[in-house]
């Protein structure tokens, strides 16, 4: 391992020690990773995530939930999902203290806006993780904010003691609905009137995300931010032109042309051809595979790029060309 902090900053991955696993709520454990030799870890900002290599071929992204001011540890929290793809089960079953675990350096696709006069944070269940980190950062910066944390009941809400302490500031509000969203926070009412300078951040399960999206639909688009921790039910692609016949992808640097068949994944085709495309979530959630496109029509299927970014970038792990030739800046 490198010993100087400068050298460490240049790394893309780290091998850390799992120092602590803590039960935070029913089905939710937190995992604390530290440097084996006690060095500082690369800094992160609120909203960042790390890739955790759980087992060979099993990599998942988890938001950091501790304070960005802490350099000695990364903390993530994971809800065990029996119906999931196996990542959360792997975390709960195979992560044992003091395992050595490979993680990526933090990346942030869910940044706090530096110019926000006020921030409204809406957390649904385990979606609280990136928002808790934001609370730490906003508190440290003495910024005006409020966190609304929605869960079925206190026993399902992670970080109870920390949040209770924060609740004393009057900025943290817990909403327990007993499993019936109609008895929980009225998100539409909360976001009824957009306030100038206020930014909204939300993260949670599918139904919660949809409720927040609808409630904030009339807010200026650049003041509303969200992060999916699971791909929503795939959007209908009927009408996407050209994919039935496949398409050509051209690599601008070499002029190499590759044929992508209708049932082929663009990221896999690029990787097979030796193009420098890295993937992580393979679900259009993390932005790792983001590539600049130069021409051609694209069927965007990600959940991370906004309309402005889509004008220049695409995520080949889930998105594809719509027939004809797609030229990529590779
Ligand atoms: S690998 Fe995560 S968005 Fe493509």
Automatic annotation (TrEMBL):
UniProt domain FAD-binding FR-type: residue ranges: 11-113
Gene3D superfamilies, per database record: 3.10.20.30, Nucleotide-binding domain of ferredoxin-NADP reductase (FNR) module, Translation factors
Gene Ontology MF terms: 2 iron, 2 sulfur cluster binding; metal ion binding; oxidoreductase activity
Segments forming domain 2Fe-2S ferredoxin-type: 247-330
Top-level lineage group: Bacteria
PROSITE patterns: 2FE2S_FER_1, 2FE2S_FER_2, FAD_FR
Name recorded for this polypeptide: Oxidoreductase
